[in-house]
Amino acid sequence: MITMTTVSVEPAADVRRHPAAPGAEVSIRPAERGDAPAIDRLVAANVGPGLLLPRSSADILRHVSRFLVATRGGEVIGCGELAPLSKTMSEVRSLVVVAAERGGGIGSRLLAAVVAGGRRQGASRVCAFTHIPRAFVAQGFSIVPHTWLPEKIMTDCQACEWFRRCAQYAVVIELGGSRGRGPRRGSP
Ligand SMILES: CC(C)(COP(=O)(O)OP(=O)(O)OC[C@H]1O[C@@H](n2cnc3c(N)ncnc32)[C@H](O)[C@@H]1OP(=O)(O)O)[C@@H](O)C(=O)NCCC(=O)NCCS
User: Fold this and answer.
1) Quick check: 139 and 111 in contact, CB under 8 A?
2) What is the reported pLDDT for 73?
3) At residue 19, does pLDDT exceed 90?
4) What is the set of domains in the chain, with CATH numbers?
5) What does the pLDDT average to over 137-152?
6) N or C: which end of the chain has fewer CB within 10 A?
7) 16 CA distance to ligand 1 centroid (A)?
8) Which residue has the higher pLDDT, 111 or 11?
9) 108 lines ligand 1 (CB under 6 A)
10) Could you give the strand order of the β-sheet that contains 75-84, starting from the edge strand earlier in sequence?
11) Ligand 1, from 127, 132, 139: best to mutate by most atoms within 8 Å of Cβ?
12) Residue nearest ligand 1's atom 21 by CA
């Protein structure tokens, strides 16, 4: 004899859409000091799976003014930082969208806003190291050899446990800014 059982299935947490405030618009704005704990949680949740480099709470708080956050209904659901690596090069760091909100274009909006910030600051180039180059290539970044980014290698890579066996892609976008460039020869 076959017995029928009714099973109610809850959607998995990481596929539930917009749990914070259904229907609320997503906004992107500069981060404030009060956003630091939420940024900390977002980053920490992606360190274990190996997607992001660890950041201390103190480091995030110290650099919180470099971050943009995506919010829905007042809740921080994504973030990204633009960190200067040299006079001419900046880096996208800690770009992350909460798992339940991925795949809806929020990461692209955040990345575009971070790059726009680099353009406003006059950066010549913006780079990133990532396991997901597609999100960057879609915004005009190119995949390049790690050795094309000596600023990053000297600043972070040499001290990293994954140095010389890193599986991340280096990506870079040329912005043509003039920050850090000296006056051209012959210019008045
Ligand atoms: C990377 C991340 C921020 C993208 O956010 P998102 O809101 O899902 O991104 P979008 O919906 O705007 O998609 C952007 C593009 O990336 C692609 N993409 C996103 N996640 C991907 C994944 N895991 N694998 C492959 N491609 C992916 C999308 O397909 C899309 O490309 P398309 O427009 O050509 O289809 C998000 O997946 C995330 O938080 N990942 C964990 C942290 C991380 O890896 N950060 C990057 C390191 S700097």
Assistant:
1) yes
2) 94
3) no
4) 11-179 (3.40.630.30)
5) 92
6) N
7) 17
8) 111
9) yes
10) 26-30, 67-72, 75-84, 89-97, 125-130, 169-174, 142-144
11) 132
12) 132
Check pocket membership of 53 for ligand 1, CB cut-off 6 A.
Answer: no
135 Cβ closer than 6 Å to some ligand 1 atom: yes
Q: Where are the beta strands (DSSP E) in 25-124?
A: 26-30, 67-72, 75-84, 89-97
* Ligand 1 contacts CB of residue 160 (under 6 A): no
Percent of the chain with pLDDT over 70: 82
Determine the pLDDT at residue 180.
63
Q: Residue 140 above 60 pLDDT?
A: yes
Q: Is the CB of 70 under 6 A from ligand 1?
A: no
To test ligand 1's pocket by mutation, which of 134, 136, 137 has the most ligand atoms within 8 angstroms of CB? Answer: 134
Phi, psi of 34 (to 5 degrees): -65, -15
pLDDT of 16 reads: 36
β partners of residue 26 = 72
10 Å Cβ neighbour count for 154? 12
pLDDT beyond 80 at 11 = no
| Side chain identity, residue 102 | R
- Cα(82) to ligand 1 centroid in Å equals 17
Judged on CB neighbours under 10 Å (0-12, 13-18, 19+), 155 is middle
